[in-house]
Write a structure and sequence with these properties.
The complex is a heterodimer of chains A (199) and B (100). Chain A has 199 residues and is mainly alpha-helical. Chain A is built from 7 helices and 1 strand; from the N terminus they run αααβαααα. A 3-stranded antiparallel beta sheet of chain B has the order 1-3-2. The chains are: A mainly alpha (199), B alpha+beta (100). At the A-B interface, α1, β1 and α4 of A face α1, β1, α2 and α4 of B. β1 of chain A pairs antiparallel with β1 of chain B, so a sheet runs across the interface.
Chain lengths: 199, 100
């Protein structure tokens, strides 16, 4: 025989279950850090290859770094979500956001030989910013929103002032700043929140 | 006159399940089991009742080496839950008025 609920008990049950279903804000911090460091590494290596070694194959670091990082991200994702037995609306929104991001990233990269790599990289800075800006809005995490906005601003400055940028390595510096403010700093802040909850 | 409470939701375990699913895109059977603290058999029976009423959708798939049952709330379930919460609030409001 089922126990008859009082109205007060019903409200308590609803409140407690809704609380249990809340999204863990810091779940995805590791991915901002993995991709942030990977892009920064590839960018710095390309900078060094151009500035110091004047190497023609300076772009080669991108496919290598990104391929290795993709494998690492998949392995980390499998480990992180191994015991993940539920999906929140936030998880789902993130899946579509970053899925669309990757598709558009490849489209922009495909345009590189046509529109030139300077403009392509500037568009990518904007795309990185858009990713963190939207994900910050979904997570309601202000550092990601601010970081995303700063990257969009850097992209706008670069695009409108592209005639004044003579050296391609200047674009790489803009990219580095963008990655630090929109992925690495917010990523570590998210991670700190995770440790705060764990403590 | 006070509204009638949906008998399907006015039960501890079924209300726990629906309240959990309302905040999620989907949840696996084992997650519902852990979160509600109920027995496997009881959860299974109540999920079937909710499914038959059209309040939830149940999807069966296959994991690495075991079957996975995933549940999600339907539009009918969301409407029933909202009506239930409204009704409960009316009950609580009327109880408060009586006290005053």
């Amino acid at each position: 025989m089922e126990k008859r609920l009082t109205e007060k008990e019903s409200i308590e049950i609803i409140g407690s279950m809704i609380n249990k279903a809340k999204h863990n804000l810091s779940n995805g911090s590791i991915f901002y850090l993995i991709w942030g460091w990977a892009v920064l590494l590839a960018s710095v290596l390309q900078f060094v290859a151009i500035k110091i070694y004047d190497w023609d194959l300076h772009w080669i670091f991108w496919p290598i770094t990104m391929a290795i990082t993709a494998v690492i991200a998949v392995l980390v994702g499998r480990r992180e979500y191994k015991n993940h037995r539920h999906t929140t609306f936030v998880d789902n929104s993130m899946k579509y956001l970053w899925g669309g991001f990757v598709i558009f990233l490849f489209l922009v990269l495909n345009m590189g030989p046509v529109i030139g790599w300077k403009l392509t990289y500037l568009l990518l800075i904007g795309l990185y910013g858009m990713g963190t800006f939207i994900s910050g809005g979904i997570l309601k995490f202000r550092p990601l929103i601010i970081g995303g906005l700063l990257s969009l601003l850097l992209s706008a400055i670069g695009i409108f002032g592209r005639e004044m940028i003579n050296d391609f390595t200047d674009v790489l510096i803009l990219l580095d700043i963008s990655i630090i403010v929109s992925y690495l700093v917010p990523g570590y802040m998210l991670r700190a929140k995770k440790n705060e909850y764990a403590a | 006159m006070l509204p009638e409470l949906d008998p399907l939701l006015h039960s501890q375990l079924r209300l726990q399940i629906i309240s959990l699913l309302i905040g999620l895109d989907s949840a696996e059977f084992n997650y519902i089991l852990e979160t509600t603290g109920a027995t496997r058999g009881n959860v299974s029976v109540q999920l079937n009742k909710l499914k038959e009423a059209g309040y939830i959708k149940v999807k069966k798939s296959f994991g690495e080496s075991y079957p996975i049952t995933t549940c999600s709330i339907t539009a009918k379930g969301i409407k029933a839950f909202e009506d239930y919460v409204k009704a409960i609030n009316i009950y609580l409001g009327s109880a408060k008025n009586k006290e005053e």
